[in-house]
Design goal:
single chain, 253 residues, Rossmann fold, 2 domains
Length: 253
């Protein structure tokens, strides 16, 4: 804990799912954690869980696609917890449909949260990292970056995050800041549960079908992704930057 005891991590989309699991894992690793989500009240459960295990947490409501609100949120984190030196860009939404039926608003909303949001958050936080000479940025991509029917907006945003990550690594490396991406496969979350509902399957059946095509014969859990993030933000990972780690139970899932 000694190397991270004074460091502050920011996790977006952390009210539930992968974001909440990541916030809890980083708190267990010794970080103070700012829990960001669109609805500040929805962050209360994650912050309470962080505090129950002896950590420091802060709930902050923010629309990551809104530049002014992002700047205000990061300023609040810096004032109340300390300078943020770790950023996990996890906030995301889905608005799935086939290309010929997709509304422009659904395209803009998904690209706005995933890609614009990661840009705005990274831009706001990097000044604290470069000033400290140390920082870690982890972006949540997806296996959908390789293409996924009915998700042209989501796939484009997640593929864009990979290029974004590699460019951050090039630009920020000389300041002691690394940037990496984690690309989850099928993870059991509220988001995938809603997908099951939309296609008319029970969540158990949906997971079973997915597991049948995954080499390790199970679907992922939020903790699997949190563990990967935990590695990337460690001191020992300082020579790992610009990488995309697929956490999908196999080479393609």
């Amino acid at each position: 804990m000694s190397e991270t005891a004074q460091k502050v991590a920011v996790v977006t989309g952390a009210a539930r799912g992968i974001g909440a699991a990541t916030a809890l894992r980083l708190a267990a690793d010794g970080f103070a954690v700012a829990v960001l989500d669109l609805d500040e009240k929805a962050c209360a459960g994650t912050v309470a869980a962080v505090e129950e295990q002896g950590g420091r947490g802060l709930a902050v409501g923010v629309d990551v696609a809104d530049a002014e609100r992002v700047e205000a949120a990061v300023a609040r984190v810096a004032a109340e917890l300390g300078a943020p030196l770790v950023l996990v860009n996890n906030a995301g939404i889905t608005r799935d449909d086939l290309l010929f039926k997709m509304d422009e608003r659904d395209w803009d909303a998904v690209v706005g949260v995933h890609l614009r949001g990661a840009f705005l958050m990274s831009r706001a936080v990097q000044k604290h990292m470069t000033a400290a000479g140390w920082g870690r940025i982890v972006n949540l991509s997806s296996t959908a970056a390789l293409g996924n029917r009915g998700q042209v907006n989501y796939s484009a945003a997640k593929a864009g995050l990979q290029g974004f990550t590699k460019t951050l690594a090039i630009e920020l490396g000389k300041f002691g800041v690394t940037a990496n991406a984690v690309a989850p496969g099928f993870i059991a979350t509220d988001m995938t549960a809603k997908t099951a509902q939309r296609v008319g399957l029970s969540f158990d059946d949906f997971k079973a079908r997915a597991a049948a095509n995954i080499p390790v014969a199970r679907v992922g859990e939020p903790a699997d992704i949190a563990a990967a993030v935990s590695f990337f933000v460690r001191e020992e990972a300082g020579f790992v930057s610009g990488q995309v780690l697929y956490v999908a139970g196999g080479p393609r899932a």
